[in-house]
Every structure is written in C-alpha cells, then in structure tokens.
Design brief:
This protein has one domain (4-168). Helix 1 (4-23) runs antiparallel to helix 2 and helix 1 packs antiparallel against helix 4. 69% of the residues lie in helices and 8% in strands. The protein is elongated. The protein has helices spanning 4-23, 32-49, 57-79, 98-120, 123-133, 137-168; strands at residues 25-29, 81-85, 92-96. It has a three-stranded antiparallel sheet with strand order 1-3-2. It starts with a helix and ends in a 17-residue tail after the last helix. With 185 residues, it is mainly alpha-helical. The protein contains six helices and three strands. A hairpin with a 6-residue loop joins strand 2 (81-85) and strand 3 (92-96). The longest helix has 32 residues, at 137-168.
Length: 185
C-alpha cells in the first residue's frame, strides 16, 4: 500500500505531532501516561522498521552515532523545558515554548529530508559512500531509529527525573519554578 519511505515519513509526522501536542504550552501534567506513552509508541513503531543491529565496523559506528545524536537532542529538548509545581494542582508540570517546538521540528524534519533524499536526491552518492565505508543501508536506518528513540527517551527520562525531584522536595514552595528552566519560552 505505502512504500517504506512513505511509512517512515508518516511515522515522523505522527511522532512530531504527538510530541508537540503533549509538550507545547504551559502547565502540562507530568504523570504516568505522559512518561509511558513514548515507550508504548516506540514499542509499536520500532519493530516495523528496525533491522538486525550491526555489531561491528563502520555500521556499528553509524548506529552509535545515531544514538549519541539522539541523546544530545533529548538533552537539548530538556534545556528548553521548564519543570515546576503547578500553581493549580501542586503537582509536577512542564512548560515548553516555541524554541522547543522549533528544535523538534528541525530534528524530525532533517531526518525526514535525509530519508527522502536517500531515495530521490542522492541515492547514487549514498550507495557509493556505503560501499566505500562498508556500511549497509540497514545500519543507516537503524542509526536514524536509534536517534529518534534516544531523543524521546532522554527527554522523557529527564522529565521524569525532574518531576520526581520536585515530589521528593516537598518543602519547596508550590509556586516556585524549578531552577532548571532556561529558554522555556
């Protein structure tokens, strides 16, 4: 029905929409569903695209580079997210603004553009690079998947840790934002 590329682009769009819907704005509740949803999403999507993991050579390096890029992206997303006690509920909440949305849009857009380009803009060059460096297309696909998963899981685990720290610090004034909140808006 859909090509593998079309399926990947649909997934990219769905992940972007879900992430922005869950995180953009203020006073976003940080609860179990918000923290578990990315795990459920990854568990449903990853098996559709993942190939056997390359365990040696340049292919492994590509996969590890994807995971490292995802961790860095997730940490960047965390710096753009404010975690605090909601004035309304007194429970952990978050706020993220346009910079957060722009980061996710650029990262997922770049991944989508690379996937599209690998089929339509530069397939011969990519094939030549893969041959010269002994990297399979599966390793590149896995690297992109690992990047996506690592970014989402890093952001999610960071939100969970920061929310847990607020809960543990019950002496903190319920209206005072977390000290880790640069560039939230």
């Amino acid at each position: 029905m859909f090509t593998e590329l079309a399926q990947a682009e649909i997934v990219n769009g769905a992940v972007l929409a879900a992430t922005l819907h869950a995180d953009l704005g203020s006073d976003r509740k940080i609860g179990a569903f918000r923290l578990l949803r990315p795990l459920m999403l990854a568990g449903g999507i990853v098996p559709l695209f993942i190939a056997p993991v390359v365990t040696h050579g340049a292919g492994l390096a590509v996969e590890l580079a994807g995971a490292a890029a995802g961790i860095l992206g997730g940490l960047a997303a965390l710096t753009l997210t404010e975690v605090y006690r909601s004035r309304r509920t007194g429970k952990a909440a978050s706020s993220a603004g346009w910079a957060y949305g722009l980061l996710w849009t650029l990262v997922i857009g770049a991944r989508a553009a690379f996937s599209y380009g690998s089929v339509h803009w530069f397939p011969a060059q990519l094939d030549a690079w893969c041959t010269a460096h002994q990297v399979t297309g599966a390793a590149i696909t896995n690297g992109l998947i690992f990047m996506a998963i690592a970014m989402v899981l890093t952001r999610t685990s960071g939100l969970g840790a920061r929310a847990a720290a607020l809960t543990a610090d019950s002496g903190q004034d319920a209206t005072v934002p977390s000290p880790i909140s640069p560039l939230a808006h």
